[in-house]
């Protein structure tokens, strides 16, 4: 490879509502372990599969402010310290996100090939993927804007398409882009799949940071200016860069394809035949996963008798199925989805209905992440709530006081340092402590192992 380093830019936006009930606005699909038997999330796999590349830099991640602790924790779990985590105060699609990453490189005076990746893609053939990236690096180093066209295996109407000047070949030969096509109807998709000049738009890009700045100056100068303003006045908060909200809100909501790639004359496409998927539905997951001899994908606590061609997933409770086929059944702690496998693209409409009715299950998970760890809501009523709290080694919750509720803590594992008023003490497994209403208190984990405890809240206000 050339002298330029590779700067991964991982865009972590999107709510993944088609994979409800596991994926929700508060914890979308990119942060879930959805494929295979491993423990890594889609985000974690996004970086792990490329870290073997020569001259690879630590990633820059761009995410919603709401997900900052999830992103930081998942990078920590795989031993990666990001170069930056840029927090968008509101989603504005991919054109502003790419501009932000390019601006950060410019401010650092770094010269690199930027590799733009979405955090929610599956790549099953890693060697082929890395080979394609190396070919893309050479083309990008020469000043071109490279994207990767997925070699289609079906007349899919869920993807946009790219028309190239020459047919795409197995030898990874780059070819100029003629145009981008919106998602076609089924009739047109059947025609496109027969022509090797057409491929699915992957949303993966490579280009020099200096070159993409030039193209923004030509075709999207307003986005560049607004993103520059929002980044230059950003606040540094722990590992995060908080963008200036006032400037960023003025950015148009537009994709990188429309803002730059459809206008530039530097666009190049390379073929990518690496088992790619953007995991757009439960049916897609069924297609990608290993199946039993009856065509079923079964995960978790499931009993299936006379079941065919179905996706069955239990996160907690037992699922028992008898005499069904072509179903998707997904269970988690507060919701169950039962759908015909062919209708799973419409799950998004269920989420919209939940949100319209004001039901929290449409957006929120019971598990909430914080800098010190996380908590999970186990059970609740109007005047009481039970939570499981997990505190990372050496971490501490803020000093706090509640005027409308009391709390009772029971340690399950680890050691807790407790401060209640002037009292300081340590408690271990099966020991408990009571925090009266109106008393200042703090919880800390002084040890090198995680702390887990149960919190029982009781009072007129539990917020």
Secondary-structure map:
Blueprint: E1 5-11, H1 42-48, E2 60-64, H2 68-77, E3 84-88, H3 94-107, E4 112-118, E5 122-123, H4 126-141, E6 145-150, E7 161-164, E8 175-181, H5 186-192, E9 198-208, H6 209-219, H7 221-232, E10 235-237, E11 240-242, H8 245-248, H9 256-261, E12 267-272, E13 276-277, H10 282-288, E14 297-299, E15 302-305, E16 311-314, E17 319-322, E18 327-331, E19 336-340, H11 347-356, E20 367-370, E21 373-380, E22 384-391, E23 405-413, E24 416-420, E25 423-427, E26 432-435, E27 441-444, E28 451-459
Parallel strand pairs: 1-2, 1-4, 2-3, 3-11, 6-12, 14-16, 15-17, 16-18
Antiparallel strand pairs: 4-9, 5-13, 6-9, 7-8, 7-9, 8-12, 10-11, 18-19, 20-21, 21-22, 22-28, 23-26, 23-28, 24-25, 24-27
Helix pairs in contact: 3-6, 3-7, 6-7
Question: Could you describe the 3D structure shown?
Answer:
- It is a single chain.
- By secondary structure, the protein is of the alpha/beta class.
- It has helices at residues 42-48, 68-77, 94-107, 126-141, 186-192, 209-219, 221-232, 245-248, 256-261, 282-288, 347-356, and strands at 5-11, 60-64, 84-88, 112-118, 122-123, 145-150, 161-164, 175-181, 198-208, 235-237, 240-242, 267-272, 276-277, 297-299, 302-305, 311-314, 319-322, 327-331, 336-340, 367-370, 373-380, 384-391, 405-413, 416-420, 423-427, 432-435, 441-444, 451-459.
- It has a 6-stranded antiparallel sheet with strand order 20-21-22-28-23-26, with no helix packed on it. The chain has a 5-stranded mixed β-barrel with strand order 6-9-7-8-12.
- Helix 3 (94-107) packs across helix 6 (209-219), helix 3 packs across helix 7 (221-232) and helix 6 crosses helix 7.
- The chain is globular.
- It starts with a strand and ends with a strand.
């Amino acid at each position: 490879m050339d002298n330029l380093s590779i700067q991964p830019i991982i865009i972590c936006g999107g709510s993944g509502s088609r994979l409800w009930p596991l994926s929700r606005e508060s914890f979308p699909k990119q942060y879930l372990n959805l494929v295979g038997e491993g423990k890594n999330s889609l985000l974690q796999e996004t970086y792990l599969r490329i870290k073997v590349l020569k001259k690879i830099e630590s990633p820059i991640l761009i995410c919603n402010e709401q997900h900052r602790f999830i992103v930081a924790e998942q990078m920590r779990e795989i031993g990666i310290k990001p170069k930056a985590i840029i927090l968008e105060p509101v989603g504005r699609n991919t054109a502003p996100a790419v501009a932000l990453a390019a601006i950060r490189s410019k401010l650092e005076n770094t010269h690199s090939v930027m590799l733009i990746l979405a955090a929610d893609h599956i790549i099953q053939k890693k060697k082929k993927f890395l080979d394609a990236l190396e070919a893309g690096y050479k083309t990008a180093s020469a000043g071109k804007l490279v994207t990767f066209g997925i070699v289609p295996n079906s007349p899919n109407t869920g993807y946009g398409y790219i028309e190239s000047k020459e047919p795409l070949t197995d030898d990874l030969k780059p070819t100029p882009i003629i145009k981008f096509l919106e998602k076609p109807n089924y009739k047109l998709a059947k025609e496109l799949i027969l022509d090797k000049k057409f491929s699915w738009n992957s949303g993966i890009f490579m280009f020099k940071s200096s070159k993409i700045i030039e193209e923004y100056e030509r075709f999207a100068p307003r986005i560049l200016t607004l993103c520059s303003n929002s980044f230059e006045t950003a606040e540094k908060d722990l590992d995060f860069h908080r963008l200036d909200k006032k400037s960023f809100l003025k950015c148009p909501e537009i994709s990188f394809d429309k803002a730059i790639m459809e206008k530039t004359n530097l666009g190049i496409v390379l073929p990518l035949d690496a088992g790619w998927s953007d995991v757009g539905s439960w049916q897609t997951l069924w297609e990608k996963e290993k199946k039993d001899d009856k065509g079923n994908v079964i995960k978790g606590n499931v009993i299936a008798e006379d079941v065919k061609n179905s996706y069955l997933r239990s996160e907690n409770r037992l699922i028992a199925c008898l005499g069904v086929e072509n179903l998707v059944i997904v269970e988690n702690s507060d919701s169950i989805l039962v759908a015909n496998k062919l209708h799973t693209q419409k799950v998004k409409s269920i989420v919209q209905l939940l949100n319209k009715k004001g039901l929290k299950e449409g957006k929120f998970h019971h598990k909430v992440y914080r800098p010190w760890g996380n908590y999970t809501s186990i059970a609740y009523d109007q005047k009481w709530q039970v939570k499981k709290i997990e505190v990372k080694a050496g971490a501490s919750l803020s000093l706090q006081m509640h005027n409308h509720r009391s709390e009772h803590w029971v340690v399950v594992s680890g050691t807790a340092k407790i401060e209640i008023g002037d009292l300081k003490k340590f408690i271990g497994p099966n020991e408990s402590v009571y925090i009266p209403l109106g008393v200042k208190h703090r919880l800390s984990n002084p040890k090198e192992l995680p702390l887990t405890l149960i919190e029982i809240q009781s009072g007129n206000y539990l917020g």
